[in-house]
Design brief:
about 15% strand; two-stranded antiparallel ribbon; about 300 residues; eight-stranded parallel sheet; about 40% helix
């Protein structure tokens, strides 16, 4: 496992994050196995949200840590807030009251006094940055949240928040993987007259690198939320074939090869793996043993149907 610094502040974070969205579906025994495996391979960073499993993922995670004999100071816990009524009248809420109430509820479920990182879960069109700043200040001064970030936000949305928020925003969760390359398509096709040249995210990749914001790629195996896993999509058959061939060449799992492609990018990203399968957790760490050449990296990129100018 490789350990990195997030922003200028949070050190010794494992470069692979275990996403806990599906933890609510697991038994107590399975969760102990998952967390023990994560610890064995060096993963110390865990990603949550107040909506994962209706909060049950956080609850089961806390119980699992105790059952596994893993102390609080051995892990870094990140959670997110801002999504409301996801099964009824789904909307976003970055109000001061909701942020604070959400964090308090998460801390109770997580059985801890503090979060290492709090992220705002997607953008809120009705955001009032001053309210967010007040919420963050309150949580920070009380010692309940140590670091802050966002998810799925473009540069100007981050700039708008950062104008009022005193604490640096050190993380941006963004979807990225070999079948979801929006962050790099436009840069490669700058000044070209094709649909790959469309700037869809405000240059968020370069912005995050310039401002020392760590990108956490989520769902690296998906095309998008609607199309699901690229390995099951015939449109990406060539990509799957290329990744399988290179995985066999480097003697690693398919999952490790996908992660190796992400880790090869110099932005020093921190991918989130959402598997609850201990064997896949173990095999994913082999991604650090792969040293992809530039030609191999670009071969994977082009295998997804992307063009180079």
């Amino acid at each position: 496992m490789k350990y990195i610094k997030l922003g200028n502040e949070l050190e010794q974070a494992s470069q692979l994050v275990l996403g806990c969205m599906r933890m609510a579906q697991k038994t107590s025994e399975e969760i102990v196995d998952i967390l023990t495996t994560a610890q064995e391979v060096g993963i110390n960073f865990f990603d949550h949200s107040d909506v994962y499993g209706g909060g049950e993922s956080e609850t089961k995670f806390a119980i699992g840590l105790k059952d596994a004999g893993i102390s609080r100071d051995q892990v870094l816990i990140q959670s997110k807030c801002g999504l409301r009524d996801v099964h009824t009248n789904y909307h976003f809420d970055f109000s001061k009251e909701y942020i604070i109430d959400s964090v308090e509820a998460s801390l109770k479920r997580l059985q801890t006094d503090y979060m290492d990182v709090l992220l705002l879960h997607r953008p809120d069109a009705l955001v009032e940055p001053e309210e967010v700043a007040e919420a963050f200040d309150s949580l920070y001064q009380a010692g309940k949240v140590r670091h802050f970030g966002v998810s799925n936000q473009n540069p100007y949305q981050i700039e708008l928040l950062q104008k009022s928020v005193k604490q640096p925003l050190i993380i941006n969760q963004l979807q990225f993987g070999p079948a979801h390359t929006v962050m790099i398509d436009q840069g490669l096709n700058a000044n070209m007259h094709n649909h790959f040249a469309v700037n869809r995210d405000g240059g968020v990749l370069d912005y995050c690198r310039l401002h020392n914001i760590t990108i956490q790629p989520w769902s690296p195996f998906q095309v998008d939320l609607a199309q699901g896993l690229f390995m099951e999509n015939p449109k990406y058959a060539q990509l799957t074939t290329t990744l399988k061939r290179l995985a066999a060449h480097y003697q690693v799992s398919f999952e490790a090869m996908v992660l190796a492609w992400i880790l090869r990018h110099p932005a020093n990203m921190q991918p989130i793996i959402g598997t609850m399968n201990p064997e896949r957790i173990r095999s994913s760490v082999a991604a650090f043993d792969v040293d992809l050449s530039r030609s191999e990296w670009y071969e994977i990129y082009k295998s997804a149907g992307n063009i180079l100018p």
